[in-house]
Amino acid sequence: MAVDVPEVEEVRKLLEELNEKALVARLDSFLRLNEGLESKKGKDFIEVSILGFLEGVLTVLRAKYPGKEKVEALHGRVKSRREELDERFKKPGIPLEEE
Fold first, then answer.
1. Coil, helix or strand for 15?
2. Average pLDDT of span 11-40
3. Do the Cβ atoms of 15 and 54 come closer than 8 Å?
4. Which uninterrupted H or E stretch holds 81?
């Protein structure tokens, strides 16, 4: 994978521990879809996309395994990191002139 997102391996490991083979396959498929897009969309854009996907997977796991600390902790970290990177893509507000 061209864009290095350390959380990918953590989520993959968690999915394997939980025996969520279908979700591992979805993760691999999503990562393959994003390969090569870095030059077109930019590293940060692809990273936000991957983190958003991971956040969605972890949200599903939170519902399926309520109270599982490992899932909760990883979800919190991925969500925070995604929100932080997502800020880079928000357009600044247009200042209003004071009368």
1. helix
2. 88
3. no
4. helix 69-86
Read off the amino acid at residue 31.
L
Distance of alpha carbon 98 from alpha carbon 86, whole angstroms: 30
For residue 39 the two structure tokens come to: 């030059």
Q: How far is 3 from 54, CA to CA, in rounded Å?
A: 14
CA torsion, ordered 31, 33, 35, 41, to nearest 10 deg: -110
Q: Residue 45 is which amino acid?
A: F
Provide the strand spans (E) within the chain.
Answer: none
What is the C-alpha separation between 99 and 89, in angstroms, rounded?
A: 30
Measured CA to CA, the distance from residue 71 to residue 73 in angstroms comes to 6
Residue 29: pLDDT band (50, 70, 90) is very high
CB contact set of 21 (below 8 Å; sequence gap of 6+): 15
Average pLDDT, integer, range 14-22: 95
